[in-house]
Design a protein that fits this description.
23% of the residues lie in helices and 28% in strands. By secondary structure, the protein is α+β, with helices and mostly antiparallel strands. Strands 1, 2, 3, 4, 5, 6, 7, 8 and 9 form a nine-stranded mixed beta sheet that branches. Strand 4 and strand 5 form a beta hairpin. It is globular. The protein starts with a helix and ends with a strand.
């Protein structure tokens, strides 16, 4: 492209009549390549990294109905319901190959999902879960960056791995769950 512009500018300079090519008579600026071989400053390697999307969690008012929809209507692989009393929910995982949908249903009226369903009668997206390679480093780093979490430390989640939830007001309105990969 630069060669074509230079050729056009040379042709315009040779043609003294002005007109259409008169704007191209000014010198064509040269573009300098950006080099990464000599960084101007050192950037510290992160102590933790985001991984893949583990799941999208959907709160449902009727777990059996939602389970049947994903299995019988959409043809997805669907797990059996698993009660997690320590989290106040029953969960069903819908396997999508590259990620999962986690169907959440409250276990009791004091479940956080019960409160969500009181505000959203038909259910809806509850949170996204992203894997991290070092959850403890992530928690410390995010606290330093003033990102609040819903608990002081990670707890064991539905997959048997440490998880922590980040406050949606600090995450663009989205409840984010970080899970140890």
């Amino acid at each position: 492209m630069a060669r074509a512009l230079k050729a056009m500018a040379a042709a315009a300079a040779a043609w003294s009549g002005g007109g259409l090519f008169s704007r191209l008579q000014s010198p064509v600026p040269t573009v300098k390549a950006f080099s990464t071989s000599q960084p101007s400053h050192q950037v510290a390697e992160p102590v933790w990294n985001l991984g893949r999307l583990n799941h999208v969690a959907v709160a449902v008012p009727d777990l059996a109905k939602a389970q049947a929809f994903y299995k019988n209507v959409l043809g997805a692989q669907v797990s059996e319901a698993v009660p997690l009393p320590e989290h106040g929910v029953s969960v069903v995982f819908v396997n999508l190959g590259n990620t999962k949908i986690e169907l959440l249903h409250p276990l009791g009226s004091d479940s956080p999902i019960a409160g969500f369903l009181q505000k959203n009668k038909a259910g809806g997206m509850h949170h996204v879960c992203i894997e991290v390679d070092n959850i403890n480093a992530a928690v410390m780093d995010l606290k330093e960056k003033k990102i609040r979490s819903l608990s002081d430390e990670a707890k064991i989640g539905a997959h048997g791995k440490p998880v922590i939830f980040l406050h949606p007001k600090d995450c663009g309105g989205v409840l984010v769950e970080l899970e140890q990969a």
